[in-house]
Design brief:
Blueprint: E1 17-21, H1 26-37, E2 45-50, H2 66-77, E3 80-86, H3 89-94, E4 103-106, E5 113-115, H4 120-135, H5 138-143, H6 157-177, H7 180-184, H8 186-189, H9 206-225, H10 243-259, H11 261-264, E6 267-272, E7 289-291, E8 302-307, H12 315-324, H13 331-334, H14 350-359, H15 361-374, H16 384-388, H17 400-408
Parallel strand pairs: 1-2, 1-6, 2-3, 6-8
Antiparallel strand pairs: 3-4, 4-5, 7-8
Helix pairs in contact: 1-12, 4-6, 4-9, 14-15
This protein binds iron/sulfur cluster (SF4).
Length: about 425
Amino acid sequence: METIYLDRLLPLEDYDKIIVLFSGGKDSLACVLDLLERGVPREKMELWHHDIDGGHPTRKMDWPVTQNYVRAIAEYLGITLRVSWRVNGFWGEVYRIGASWPIQYEDPFSGETLECPLSEKQLRSARLREKILNDLEREELEGMGLRMKFPAKSGNLATRWCSSILKIMVADTVIRSLDLEELKSIGSSQRFPFKGSIANGRYCSPNLKREVGDSLIRNLDLLKQDGQRMKLPAKSGCHQGRWCSGSLKAQVESKLYADIDALAQNVKILVVSGERRQESAGRSKYNEMEVHRTNATIKAHRLVHQWRSVIDWDETEVWDIIRRWQITPHPCYAAGWNRCSCMMCIFSLPTHWAGIRELFPERFMEVEEDERVLGFTLDNKKPLAEYVGSAKSCVCHDNPLALHQLTSGEFSVVDVERQKWTLPAGAFHGAAGGPC
Ligand code: SF4
């Protein structure tokens, strides 16, 4: 904190670009509105949103409506939005075997998906995952109930990675279910290692089975050398244990500066984020202004400052500015939540989890299943069901439209100021904030 402390910012007009880290929650919305009230031109600003789900085809950690909400706010305010993510998001990271998945972002002007350069490890893991999948015969996958069709390969990196998301899901599932001990026994039993998958070597000879088994063991071992997660984030203050904030937000953000031409060099950038001292003991000690971790004034003539512009605001000031602009806050507030961020944030209180169970019962059951599969509980001490216990759901039913938006994911620019503005039910209801 001391080494990066910054005494003062440049005058706002001296920055070439002002980036607001925009989760869709009330505090980051307050930052955007505050900058507009200070007269910062819209064309100088960009809203950056990190999609925590990273396009995972089946699993979600965040509210289904968040992506549409942030797009609608950006469109309504006339400010460029840049969405970025780590491929396969939170759940891909939970079940990751091998190096971390690539970081991608949407070019706000062309709509194209771009990818940050891959490390050697990431490239090697991608090849190994592909090899493992190729080793598994399609009939075997079908025998396991996974009827996935692989999209055609393309020379275009973005397209290839998009299509490979489907494979990644297969890879996650298949690799997880590989039993190394059974694989090793192929030689003696001459049996393919997937339960109920194939009858009497109908599809391949014992030699081929052995060859495939050996190759799987070899490649799986190599893949594990590149790293693996296979656990849920810990409720801790540091990014290492609470890996979700670091891997899916901070690292995703950091990678972008060097990859976007206009931000890579000879530029002055101000990053604005919405942490408030009132939220937690940790945040109460944050610097208001500091040198951002991606500052590279010597190497790239890139100056990056960070400003927590609402750090000393209390919750009343936050709601006041949103009321002044008559903007509908994220629908989760009307449904009774006091903080937004990830829907199933690991720091959620029992009453929030009871709310998730009420609105999204399948999601709740999936997390219970994850705890069983991983042998790791989301709470540091007890399984989810026990943690929630008989807590009363936090869901407030006074605003049916907000509940519909929250569960259906529907939200467009016409919804931004559609309703008469009222303070949402979740305002001032404690649980001020977690680390994100
Ligand atoms: S700490 Fe909570 S809000 Fe932050 S990334 Fe993890 S789950 Fe999401």
